[in-house]
Structure formats: structure tokens, C-alpha cells
Amino acid sequence: MELEQVKPQEIEKRSFEIITELLGEKKLDPENALVIKRAIHTTADFDYADHLKFSPHAVKMGMEAIRQGASIVTDTNMGKAGINKKKLARYGGQVYCFMADEDVAAMAKQNGTTRAVASMDKAASLKQDLIFAVGNAPTALIRLYELICEGRIAPRLIIGVPVGFVNVIQSKELILNLEKEMGIRVPYIIAEGRKGGSNVAAAICNALLYQME
Amino acid sequence: MELEQVKPQEIEKRSFEIITELLGEKKLDPENALVIKRAIHTTADFDYADHLKFSPHAVKMGMEAIRQGASIVTDTNMGKAGINKKKLARYGGQVYCFMADEDVAAMAKQNGTTRAVASMDKAASLKQDLIFAVGNAPTALIRLYELICEGRIAPRLIIGVPVGFVNVIQSKELILNLEKEMGIRVPYIIAEGRKGGSNVAAAICNALLYQME
Fold first, then answer.
1. How far is residue B146 CA from its own chain's centroid?
2. Which of B48, B122, B132, B154 is 20 to 30 Å from A46 at the Cα level?
3. What are the average pLDDT values for consecutive 10-residue runs of chain A, which has 213 residues?
4. Strands across the sheet containing A130-134
5. Model-level pTM?
6. E strand or H helix at A51
7. Phi and psi of A71, rounded to 5°?
8. If we measure between CA atoms, which residue out of A164, A155, A213 comes closest to residue A189?
9. Per the CB < 8 Å rule, is A6 touching B112?
10. What ranges in B83-197 are assigned the alpha helix state H?
11. CA Rg, chain A, in Å?
């Protein structure tokens, strides 16, 4: 197989052309297409074309939140490393990840929870508009659900893409069913099933940021 | 679907049990099993059970390199964020990612290459044993191949898991065929096909580190 000659600054554009070709006849909702394609771009996994679920106008609402200065809370330092912090800062937001904080480790130990749970509790004390990008720990998403139900937090958007095998599917269902079961409407972008990851969480955040230019 | 009751410190163990269950009858080479399972753990993507290719004793040789103090060079700051740097430091190694360095940006601009290419050139100037963990840019893997062929670098192990659509498959084939076509033997762990990512690169590094304890 021969190398394709593509200039460095053309690689991403060419990648998205190939993704569009490979999607073929598959129809994506235009509002969500760039988020879906960027998730595929970062994983080469076309399952995301079927498994990403969007509440009505979630992408628009996420962009609006960023435009109004919302910050992003994520549960992994890998996710934080991947989010385009410079672009976010243009609107006044920043990226928080509390997972490595000493007070979070102490709180988790004291309460017998994961650090991800403690990091969501810490986020709930922030008095500002927040988007949550959960790319690793279902326990973070479950805790976020509880904090929402208790009225202690009202995320502008939940990007719920934890990955794995213990309570991952369940944690996503809690968010997908929030409105139906609890009567609480929170915009979401959720990767149904076991798949997700910090790379996917970062890619979705960046897909919002890149559409805003 | 009900939440499974698992203690925080048991989640990872339980995850690996579920992965083993889901793999079913599939036989993994015991030498490579923990690397494969950790790649699945970080992606929930069972394709890695088929697509990860190992040169003979690559895992053992990677662990031996780390034990002797080898450092890891990666092409993404997300990968760097995900690698367990504390465990690596016990053996004397550290993690380098040159992607955001100003001299790398300048070199890339001057030479009309990607920054990933320039970051591999910078790595070639390091006078120490290195493991390369390429989780993003196929251009990094292609440049690494060229540097090896030119005798300018001799990696102790190549973890070649770039992801995407432009020259990704080809870049991996260059490494897979190094011995057959160029007569040069370099240990490798390669994710055949388009899939991979910074999370997979970090997971493979960590799988080596965690087996060494």
C-alpha cells in the first residue's frame, strides 16, 4: 500500500473527507454531524455514528454555554490534555480536572468512594456555568446524576462518554432517562453502550469549539 | 439495568474479569494477554484482541528496557498525561513529548513537515535508550521508520498505534515489514488497521509497567 501524498496542513481535512466517504449512505443529523465525525476521527471507530445520542439541540446549547463563558469539568487529566484550552479561553472558560487533587483523594478515602465521585462533589462547589465531560469513570457520571437530582448542580451540558465494564451502560442510562424519570431536563451528548474514553470526551469538546469559529 | 455494587478499589479487577468473560473461547498468547486486555479496558473495543500484533517477546523486551532505565517518547500530550510516570520513574525513565515545543514548531515550519515528524527528529538527538509510543500521528511513525533505516535511532520498542485515515495503515506496515524488507529487527507492538489512539498508547505503556511489579 503506497503512501498518500498529503501536505501537513491538509491531513485533517483529508481525514474528514475519507470519513464522509466511508459513512456512505448513512445520514447524520447536520446539527450533530461534526461531533460524530470528530469522535470517529479520534478513534477510527464507526460505532460512534450509531451510538452517540444527543438531546434536542445539545450541540447548539453547548456552544452557547461556551460562548457565555462556561468552563469544562472533566474526570481525566488525559481529557484535560486533549481539550483545546486556548480556544476555550477566548470565551472566558477554562478546563478543570480535580482527579489528582489532594483534597479529592482525602475526601474519597474518608467517604469510601472513587476519586471521580469526590471530584464531582468538588465541582459542585464551583459557582459558575459548567459543561461536564466524563470520559473515564462511570462513578463520576452516577454522582453527577445524584447531584442534579438533589438540585445541587445544573450542568449546561453533559458529555457522558465514560468507557468500560462496571456500571458504564447503567450510568449513561441514568442521564438518558433524567427527563423521563425525574422530570429534569439537562442537555446531553452520550455514547450509549460500553464505549467512550477521555479521547472521545476531548474530541467532542473540541468539535464544539471548532464549530464556533 | 441495576447498578452493580463494586467497591472503588475492586472496579478495575472486576473490569478485567468481565473482559475475560467476554473474550470467551478466544485464546490470547499469555505473554501478550495483559497488554491486549488493557487496550480493551481503555476502549471497550474488542477489535484489539485481533488487531494488536507483537514481534516475538516484545512485551518482555519492553519491560526489560524499562527495567534498565529506558525513557518513553510519545507524540501526544494526552498520551503523556495517561502514562504512569511515577512507576516509570522508579526505574529511572521519564516520558517525553516534544509536540508543543517551540523548536519543534519552528523546525516543522522550516522543513514543511508535521510537528510530529520534527518531534521524532528531536527524539533522535537524545542519547539514551528509548521506547516510542506513537498514539496519534502516522507521520511520526513514518519518520521513525526513516530514522531507523538511516541508522540514526534504535528504539528498544515501538508501540505503534496511531489512529486515523491518512497513511495510518501504511505507517504501521512499514514497521511490521522492517525486518523482512530492511533486515532490521526492532521489537514492536502494532495495532493493525486504522484504530489506535493516545489512550491505547498510554494503556500499553501502563500494561508493561503494571506487569513489572
1. 18
2. B132
3. 90 96 95 98 97 98 98 97 97 98 97 96 96 97 97 97 97 97 97 98 98 92
4. A52-54, A188-191, A157-160, A130-134, A71-74, A95-96
5. 0.96
6. helix A48-51
7. -100, 170
8. A155
9. no
10. 85-90, 102-111, 115-124, 138-149, 168-176
11. 17
